[in-house]
User: What shape does this take?
Amino acid sequence: MPDDSKLLDFGTTQASPFQLELRGHPGALAQFGTPPLPLIDDDYDLVPLLRQASNEELAPLVDFIIKKGGVAADLPQTQRYIQYSPNHQMYADDIAAEIQIFGANSIATFARGGKGRKYRDILVKAAKRCGIKSRPKDSVEDIEIRII
Assistant: This one.
């Protein structure tokens, strides 16, 4: 396994020399990663948005997940991240799943077979923690704006 202390910084992502050697050979390194993260497919407030986002739009999100998630972040160990980074569009579903997992309780996530919570549920909980009331009829965008 590559030594994390020898990671090279390439702007929005990091890669070990071992990963760089194999980047030109799709699939050569992917076998060492974990399978795709468990995704709640019908999370219509998050999944379609990330699937249509550009690499430039996804890059700050990926950076945040990796830096703030630390050892809890599963994204950097996934097969698709290892194989395609920094082409974030290729693993947008894993990015969405990581957000869903980060926003959920670990025990409840385990009980749901590794799946997190829908983005709206995460957002409503965040709003409540900020002292902001939300109603079921409120759009995700309205709740986000009130939080900001």
About this structure: Helices lie at 17-22, 47-52, 55-69, 79-84, 92-102, 106-111, 119-129, 140-147. Residues 4-117 form one domain. Residues 1-22 have pLDDT under 50 and may be disordered. The CA atoms of residues 55 and 143 lie 26 Å apart.
